[in-house]
Predict the structure.
Amino acid sequence: AKIVETRVVTLSDVASHIIGYGRVTSAQPVTLVSEVNGILESGSIHFRPAQDFNRGDILIKVDDRQIRLDINSAKSDLLNALSTVLPEIKVDFPDDYTIWQNYFNSISYDKKLDTMPKINNQKIKLYLSRFNVFKLYYQIRNLEIQLEKHVFIAPFNGTIISTVRHAGSTTRVGITLGEILNMDDLEIEVPLPLNDIQWIDKEKSVTFTSKETSGTWSGRIKRIGKNIDTRTQTVQVFMSVNKSKKSGLFNGAFLEANIPGKTISNAISIPRKLIYDDQYVYLVVNGRLEYRQVNVARRELNSVIINSGLAENDTLITEVLQGVACLL
C-alpha cells in the first residue's frame, strides 16, 4: 500500500493566461528639426534633457522679427490693392461692397489674416485679380505658415530626451534641435510565440509588473503584428499602459505582461509536473492506481489546461510518482 496526495476533480470554465516580457517605449517619439534659419530663443521651459513639459508649452523658438516685418509689409500691399479696387466694387456691385469693406477693416498688423470672403461674382473676381489681391493674400498666408515654424509648441505632455542646440545658438534649415517623448501614450512591445497569439483575448485588460521597480500597471492590446521573426519565431504584440496607472513608470523599463487568454469550458488546470509523456495522468480508482490519457488544450508556463479525459469527481494524484509502473 502507498499513500499519495490527491485532489477531487472539479470541471469549470478555465481562463488561459499568456506571459510575455518587453520594454516600455513612447508610442510617439518626436525629433525636433528646424525648418527656418535664425537665433534660438528660450521658450516657456528650460530646453534641457529630463525636463518635463505640458501640452501647449513653448519648448524653444527662433527669432521671428524679420518674418513678422515681411508679413506686415505684405499686408500693407494687400491693403493698398483693396483700397484701389473697393471704389470700383462700390460703383458696379453695391450689394457686395459692404462685404469687402468689412474685410478691408478686419486686416490688422497685430493678428492673423482672416479668410477671404467667398466670391460668387466672376466680375468681382476679375477686378481682384487685376490688382493682385489673390497673389498678395496667398503670399501673406504663406508667410504666416513660415512664422508658425519659428515656434516649437509641445503637442502633448512629455519629457525632453536630448538636446543638440540651446538658446543663443544659431540654427539652420534641417538642423536637429532635440528629441521629445509623449509620456501620455506609452506602449510595450512584447514578442510572443505564434501558438500563443490565437489564445489572446483582446477585450480583456493586461496586467504589468516589474522586478526593477514596485508597482502594478494595466493596459490593453493595441495591435498584433502580422510578421513572424524568422530568428525567434515570435510575433510582436503592442500593448498600451493606462495613463492613470503610469506613475513611477519610466521609458525603457522592463516589464512582465500577464495577458488574459480565451476561456476553456468544462476544463481543469493542473501543474505541469502531473502530466506524464505529455498526455497521461495518474488517478486513484477504487483504491487502485490508474494511468489515463487526457487531452491537453493548452500548455502554460507552470500549468496545463485539460479539457477531456477527466470526469467530475475523479480522484487525481497531485504528487509526482516515482518507482511505479503501469501494465497497459
